[in-house]
Amino acid sequence: EVQLVESGGGLVRPGGSLRLSCAASGFTFSSYSMNWVRQAPGKGLEWVSSISGGSGYVYYADSVKGRFTISRDNAKNSLYLQMNSLGAGDTAMYYCARGGGNSVYYYMDVWGKGTTVTVSS
Amino acid sequence: QSVLTQPPSSSGTPGQRVIISCSGSSSNIGSNTVNWYQQLPGTAPKLLIYSNDQRPSGVPDRFSGSKSGTSASLAISGLQSEDEADYYCAAWDDSLNGWVFGGGTKLTLL
């Protein structure tokens, strides 16, 4: 069964850092691009970042550029999101989503259940 | 303010057909394909339509998608109670170099 499981969320103070992880199983991880999408409480979906299967292509939303870093370890079937300089606007559920192919331009066809990040003093 | 524009809400009665619109621009819908996601209350989004009009395996044929120019539409026929959800359109934006989503449409059954 294809599965994505996020972890690493929690409560962090403004200006702090957090590293999210996404463990993938049931498919050849290195053959697929991966994405992070977030959803603030009561709000819509917001794309955060994408990475191609071989990590050669990486993209970020303007709202997180320079603060967040996406990475992956294909040997460990894992996706990561390093989040620095966190602010209240980063409070959200963070979803890991698989791209439909190696390129980042593919639709997101499998989603994890999400991990919650709360930024508050 | 979302790059793609959707109506915030829509409603229908059981068995009815509803259409949800999604409006964009030449840099997103105008030059790339559109995907639709369904988010049931309290759950993660699920891919509903990809590449404008393709249904993933397991999605009923009551759901259909179309695209024309810089706009796209999701049609749901034979509305059922389990269709009550939020629906989002999405497309890659060549100018922003990233994915853009619509603000979401909350579908309510009357």
Task: For the record, give the distance between the C-alpha atoms at the N and C termini of chain A, rounded to a whole number.
Answer: 40 Å
* Overall strand count of chain B: 9
The biggest beta sheet of chain B reads: 6 strands, mixed
Helicity range of chain A = under 10%
Q: What's the SSE pattern of chain B? A: EEEEEEEEE
Q: Which percent band covers the strand fraction of chain B?
A: over 45%
Q: Helicity range of the residues of chain B? A: under 10%
| Helix-strand makeup class of chain A | mainly beta
Using DSSP, what is the number of strands of chain A?
11
Count of helices of chain B?
0
- Based on the structure, what is the oligomeric state of the protein chains? heterodimer
Shape of chain B: globular
What is the count of helical runs of chain A?
A: 0
Q: Give the structural class of chain B.
A: mainly beta
Please trace the helix and strand order of chain A, writing H or E for each element: EEEEEEEEEEE
Overall pLDDT score of chain B:
97
How much is the radius of gyration of chain A in Å? 13 Å
Which key phrases capture this entry?
heterodimer; A: about 120 residues; mainly beta; 7-stranded mixed β-sheet; 4-stranded antiparallel β-sheet; globular; B: about 110 residues; 6-stranded mixed β-sheet; 3-stranded antiparallel β-sheet; about 0% helix; about 45% strand
